[in-house]
């Protein structure tokens, strides 16, 4: 099934009569990408659901003013990334733990019906949680979403060179973790 | 580390990681993505409604809200413990009551006022009070002839009688006097005294 072009979505959104239709098209096109991008950061489905809804409500409110100086998906990813980081930071503040503390995410990984992977996949996720947030983001977008460095650069506002270095460091740390916990 | 060829270079640096299948280990509830658009749209509607400005709230509303809620909770709790007042009513009582009442009114043949008599008694009492007050006020405002005469001094009366009275007035005065002894005094007067009186007044 051919996906609708972003330009068509944006054009329809500008027209009040076709605005709802445009938004539905946008949701269908991007909801899964945004969902998994958030899910890999916050782990828990219910938290992800809240954040994803927040993201798309923000999109609805601000899409009219989207200047189209960036790609639509880049803008969506940026909103989703900011919402995820804000959520995690707020959670840590509420629990009175340091920003580096990942006990909440670790707990989400091991409890409930969140995870159905095997042991090695669990180790990978645990290894990812040992990374700083931004590094984890870079790794997720490169490794799982297979985005180009230029696209990640547009989303995070970080230079391509810094992203390459960050990804390299992330890979090294994960490898060490997997070997250590083999 | 060759950053330019990092796309595949990392696999040499991390063979364990490279050997892993890129599978998605996370679960998603069934039909989640089918229902997500509706959820988002509902959220948007709710957010739009919450933007409405200038909702007015009665003064002191939030100050009393806590107590009102606690009272409501207590009442609900009480109702859950005591669901009714415990009074028993015969079966079909209320269904039969209406029929009995209507039957009674038809049997007596009387037309009963639906309004209470209280209003008629109250109206009668008001009229009585007003009439009595009016009467009392009138008495106070217009004194009787006797009250007016009582205000006149004895000397003034004597002066008037000397100027305007004649022989026939004596009899009238004696008859109307409240003093029962006045008539008897006349019988105690001597003949000489009577003659003196007659000579001065005639």
Number of helices of chain A: 9
Unreliable spans of chain B: none
Strand-residue fraction of chain B? under 5%
Overall body shape of chain A: globular
Largest binding interface between chains: A-B, 43 and 28 residues
Alpha-beta classification of chain A: mainly alpha
- CATH superfamily assignment of the largest domain in chain A? RNA polymerase sigma factor, region 2, helix turn helix motif
Straight-line N-to-C gap of chain A: 43 Å
Distance between the termini of chain B: 167 Å
Number of strands of chain A: 0
- What series of H and E elements makes up the topology of chain A? HHHHHHHHH
Which descriptor suits the 3D outline of chain B? Answer: elongated
CATH architecture of the largest domain in chain A: Orthogonal Bundle
How many strand elements of chain B?
A: 0
Order of secondary-structure elements of chain B: HHHHHHHHHHH
Cα gyration radius of chain B (Å): 55 Å
Please describe the biggest sheet of chain A, giving its number of strands, its sense, and whether it closes into a barrel.
Answer: none
Radius of gyration of chain A: 18 Å
State the main characteristics:
heterodimer; A: about 180 residues; mainly alpha; Rna Polymerase Sigma Factor, Chain: A; Arc Repressor Mutant, subunit A; 2 domains; 9 helices; about 75% helix; B: about 200 residues; about 70% helix; about 0% strand
Describe this structure in words.
The complex is a heterodimer of chains A (182) and B (202). Chain A contains nine helices and no strands. Chain A has two domains: 1-101, RNA polymerase sigma factor, region 2, helix turn helix motif (Rna Polymerase Sigma Factor, Chain: A); 116-182, Arc Repressor Mutant, subunit A, CATH 1.10.10.10. Chain A is an all-alpha fold. The termini of chain A are far apart. Chain A is globular, with a radius of gyration of 18 Å. Chain B is mainly α and 202 residues long. Among the domains of chain B are: 113-142; 149-201, no CATH class. Chain B contains eleven helices and no strands. The longest helix of chain B has 24 residues, at 118-141. The N and C termini of chain B lie far apart (167 Å). The mean pLDDT of chain B is 72. Chain A binds chain B through residues 23-24, 27-28, 31-32, 35-36, 39-40, 43, 45, 49, 52-53, 56-57, 60-61, 113-118, 120-122, 124-125, 143-144, 161, 164-165, 167-168, 171-172, 174-175, 178-179, and chain B through 1, 3, 6, 10, 13-17, 20, 22-29, 32-33, 36-37, 39-41, 43-44, 47.
């Amino acid at each position: 099934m051919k996906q609708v072009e972003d330009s068509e979505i944006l054009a329809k959104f500008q027209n009040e009569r076709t605005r709802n239709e445009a938004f539905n098209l946008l949701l269908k096109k991007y909801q899964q990408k945004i969902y998994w991008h958030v899910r890999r950061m916050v782990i828990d489905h219910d938290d992800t659901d809240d954040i994803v809804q927040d993201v798309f409500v923000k999109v609805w409110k601000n899409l009219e003013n989207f200047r189209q100086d960036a790609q639509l998906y880049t803008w969506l990813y940026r909103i989703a990334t900011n919402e995820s980081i804000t959520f995690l930071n707020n959670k840590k503040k509420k629990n009175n733990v340091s920003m580096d503390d990942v006990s909440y995410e670790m707990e989400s990984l091991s409890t409930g019906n969140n995870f159905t992977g095997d042991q090695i996949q669990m180790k990978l996720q645990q290894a990812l949680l040992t990374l700083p947030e931004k590094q984890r983001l870079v790794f997720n977008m490169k490794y799982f979403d297979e985005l180009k460095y230029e696209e990640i650069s547009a989303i995070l506002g970080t230079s391509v060179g810094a992203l390459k270095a960050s990804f390299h460091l992330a890979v090294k740390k994960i490898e060490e973790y997997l070997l250590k916990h083999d | 580390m060759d950053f330019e060829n990092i796309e595949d270079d990392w696999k040499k640096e991390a063979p364990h990681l490279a050997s892993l299948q890129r599978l998605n280990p996370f679960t998603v509830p069934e039909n989640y993505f089918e229902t997500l658009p509706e959820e988002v749209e509902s959220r948007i509607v709710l957010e739009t409604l919450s933007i409405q400005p200038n909702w007015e709230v009665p003064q002191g509303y939030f100050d009393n809200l806590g107590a009102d809620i606690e009272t409501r909770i207590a009442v609900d709790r009480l109702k859950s413990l005591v669901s009714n007042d415990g009074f028993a009513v015969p079966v079909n009582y209320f269904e039969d009551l209406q029929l009995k009442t209507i039957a009674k009114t038809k049997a007596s043949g009387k037309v009963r006022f639906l309004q209470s008599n209280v209003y008629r008694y109250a109206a009668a009492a008001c009229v009585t009070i007003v009439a009595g007050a009016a009467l009392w006020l009138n008495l106070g405002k217009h004194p009787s002839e006797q009250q007016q005469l009582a205000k006149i001094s004895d000397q003034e009366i004597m002066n008037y009688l000397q100027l305007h009275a004649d022989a026939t007035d004596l009899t009238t005065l004696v008859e109307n006097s409240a003093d029962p002894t006045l008539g008897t005094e006349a019988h105690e007067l001597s003949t000489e005294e009577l003659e003196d009186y007659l000579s001065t007044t005639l």
